[in-house]
Design brief:
Helices cover about 55% and strands about 15% of the residues. It contains 16 helices and 11 strands. The chain has helices at about 1-25, 40-55, 70-85, 145-160, 165-170, 190-205, 205-225, 235-250, 255-270, 275, 295-310, 315-330, 340-355, 360-370, 390-400, 405-420, and strands at about 25-30, 65-70, 90-95, 100-105, 115-125, 130-135, 140, 170-175, 180-185, 230-235, 290. A hairpin with an 8-residue loop joins β4 (about 100-105) and β5.
């Protein structure tokens, strides 16, 4: 009996030792891949261009296509997924035919470390397969021969168990790794690309939030197809019933508000919900109306798009996109720099910020915006005496540049107007 007890104790001690060693080798106190910079408007334009390359319309199935992506674009996609699912970070470099991927993911509290870090180097072999040059899990290097056997086994398991993966692999006819870019050749299949897009939505959107967005899309469709709704309407004609719907649904006021503003931003951008959310049972085509704020269509779009950006990212990004848009307007063909547009951009960002900042503030926003007699003055500042349509030369003469004292004084005045609006007075920070 004592030998049995000794054996059990020995096994337990061995197991503890293995756990301790594994924890020390695999976990670290800090990430090897730090936070990545936020997406810029130029990044968003690059992503749109990439999607246009991959999802060309009116193509016949079987057509041979090529898609070239830069390391930055792959990195952005990975970081989007990691941030949404694991709150981790990724770094991608492509140099002289070698792809290096580094990933850092936080782990639950434990005595060994707060982060799991990994790095892998991949290269194309003569038989057009990916080969692992180097794999490191935490501080523990995995022999390349073992890493390649594991990758091959994973590939075979996916081919057998994931039909969509098998179809993707069969559609790819070749690839090449250059410097800072990866080029993939594939046979265009509309059905397959639709399936990949649907899978991407599942990965990037929490299923609960996707269901919430579906509900708001149906509500927006019902509102906009009402024959009693005039062609020209104030943004209040949609804000009030959408926030009333958010309030009636209950649940997290923050998440309900987020969904409402995201759908309204899609509507302002003239994007059909199913394009981003997939098939929504019972959803008909939305009727697009001439939205107005302070009597102008462009102001309504600025407000709703900035609010939608804010609840999907952060205020700095929403304001930066608004500023960039105004700077571009000073170039040839634009309408010029308008502090009126900038004021509405900032008001939209502030509306989005408040609507999702806390449950208390979110419920207050619902209560005030759900008013059937909602007035624009509740959430939109006065635009009187704000300069607009300034040419590049006129803007430089009067304000020198963005962030110059004269410009900052104008922005400070705009922010003060927004702070004095009834929606924001007395809110909790």
């Amino acid at each position: 009996m004592k030998y049995l007890v000794a054996l059990v104790c020995g096994l337990l001690l061995t197991a503890v030792a293995v756990v301790v060693v594994a924890g020390l080798l695999l976990l670290a106190a800090a990430p090897t891949v730090g936070d990545t910079p936020p997406l810029t408007p130029a990044d968003l334009a690059a992503v749109r261009s990439l999607l246009q390359q991959a999802l060309l319309k009116n193509q016949e199935n079987g057509n041979l296509k090529q898609l070239t992506v830069r390391s930055r674009e792959i990195e952005q996609a990975m970081n989007y997924l990691l941030d949404a699912r694991l709150n981790g970070n990724a770094r991608i470099t492509i140099n002289q035919g070698v792809v290096t991927v580094g990933i850092s993911v936080p782990v639950p509290a434990n005595p060994f470390g707060s982060w799991f870090n990994t790095e892998v180097e991949l290269v194309k072999t003569g038989d057009s397969q990916l080969h692992v040059l180097h794999l490191q899990l935490g501080k523990f290097p995995i022999p390349a021969s073992l890493a390649n056997r594991l990758m091959l086994r994973m590939h075979e398991e996916l081919l057998e168990q994931e039909p969509q993966y098998a179809r993707v692999m069969s559609a790819i006819t070749g690839f090449s790794i250059g410097t800072d870019q990866l080029t993939v050749s594939y046979r265009w299949q509309r059905e397959l690309l639709d399936q990949i897009a649907a899978r991407g939505r599942t990965l990037m959107l929490d299923p609960e939030h996707q269901a919430r967005l579906h509900a708001f899309a149906l509500q927006l469709s019902q509102l906009t197809t009402d024959p009693a709704l005039p062609e020209k309407i104030s943004v209040t004609a949609l804000l009030a019933p959408m926030f009333s719907f958010a309030r009636q649904r209950g649940g997290s006021a923050v998440e309900e508000n987020r969904a409402a503003l995201q759908l309204l931003a899609m509507y302002a951008l003239d994007v059909e919900p199913e394009r981003l959310l997939g098939v929504i049972p019972g959803l008909g085509k939305l009727q697009h109306h001439d939205l107005r704020l302070s009597g102008r269509h462009d102001f309504a779009l600025h407000l709703l798009i900035s609010a939608g950006l804010e609840v999907s990212s952060d205020e700095a990004m929403a304001n930066e996109i608004g500023t960039l848009k105004e700077q571009l307007d000073t170039k040839g063909g634009g309408t010029g720099f308008s502090f009126t547009d900038l004021a509405v951009d900032h008001a939209g960002a502030r509306l989005g910020e408040l609507a999702v900042s806390s449950e208390v503030n979110a419920k207050r926003v619902q209560l005030l915006l759900a008013d059937g007699n909602l007035q624009e003055s509740l959430f939109a500042p006065s635009l009187q005496e704000l300069p607009e349509f300034l040419s590049e030369a006129e803007f430089a003469r009067r304000y020198t540049a963005v962030d110059a004292p004269a410009y900052n004084a104008m922005v400070a005045g705009i922010e003060n107007r927004i702070r004095q609006l009834p929606l924001y007075l007395g809110t909790q920070q």
